[in-house]
Amino acid sequence: MIKTISWKNNKAVFIDQRVLPAAEKYITCTSYKQVIAAIKNLTVRGAPAIGVAAGFAAALGALNLGELTPDKFRQKFFAICDEINQARPTARNLAWALERMKRRFTLVRNFPPLKITAALIDEAKRIYSEDIETNRKLGKNGARLIAQRDNILTHCNAGALATAGYGTALGVIRSAKGQGKKLHVYVDETRPVLQGARLTAWELKKEKISFTLITDNMAGFLMRQGKIDKIIVGADRIAANGDTANKIGTYSLAVLAKEHNVPFYVAAPFSTIDVSIKSGEKIPIEQRNPLEVTRVQGRNIAPKGTKVYNPAFDVTPANYITAIITEQGILKKPYTVSIKRAHQGVKH
């Protein structure tokens, strides 16, 4: 299994996704600020992976606080969590993981500082291990939707690299392959940062899963030719009504899928669902550096001074989504009902 994130000797270690597939390089973070930088610059990316990274960042922050009074420790630790929470605004798992870290702190707040820190490290490790187990369950649930010899289209990267090590959309594909199903994956290159071409293709090659790389604007043509049986994507945040924020370009695929009667599935851990947000209109959309659009691999591809609009995500309305695959099961329409029912069964 691909080792996206790990905790070693009180340090957080990440595979550097910026340099894949050319090199397999790891970076080690000894402070929470280094983890924030790694999240911002896409060394680590994908909502579940960002959540795990946030837990490790908070643990590193606590490690470096030293001996403080309970009140001072709480004040500084919560300030660190709030700072980490600003790293990227769209991914729900970031805030979700930090909320868990804060709750764990509250339970042990009267312990000596060393024991508090040990408890926080333990919670961060739990978030890590639970993410892998959650995505295995999610993958098993989703594999029921995959038929023998299906051709599946993916967008962006929702594999091991986007999680602690198993994957959401690619976790479904991995599980289906593990059940002996023969399938083929069409990989959208995913401009502007090419997560499909660089990362998903790299993962599928490593896993020996049959795939074909296409440019983003080929997808509709393939659907019209009948070459796509299903589309499975990940998610960065899902509203209470099922509206889903995912990598820019997802909405276009969903519209095309509806036109061509292709099932469109979202695969995400339940922690990605934000029940406090009623609809996708309230999901914050991150705006990123214009250079991601005007340059590819450090080389300019547009005239100097070109104006750029670079939202990292778009929102797909729930009515375009066939089902949402989670570890809690496969959620169907109406999502306001199925999400609420599943939420009531989740331990908080």
Protein described:
With 348 residues, the chain is an alpha/beta fold. It folds into 2 domains: 5-136, translation initiation factor eif-2b, domain 1 (Four Helix Bundle (Hemerythrin (Met), subunit A)), CATH 1.20.120; 141-344, 3-Layer(aba) Sandwich (Rossmann fold). It has helices at residues 32-40, 47-63, 70-84, 92-108, 113-143, 169-178, 195-206, 219-224, 250-259, 291-294, 335-344, and strands at residues 5-8, 11-15, 26-29, 150-154, 183-188, 211-214, 230-233, 237-239, 244-247, 264-267, 273-274, 295-296, 299-300, 313-316, 323-326, 329-331. The strands form 4 sheets. The protein has a 7-stranded mixed beta sheet, sandwiched between helices. It has a 4-stranded mixed beta sheet with strand order 11-8-9-14, with helices on one face. A hairpin with a 2-residue loop joins strand 15 and strand 16. Helix 1 (32-40) runs antiparallel to helix 2, helix 2 (47-63) packs antiparallel against helix 5 (113-143) and helix 5 (113-143) crosses helix 6. The radius of gyration is 20 Å and the shape is globular.
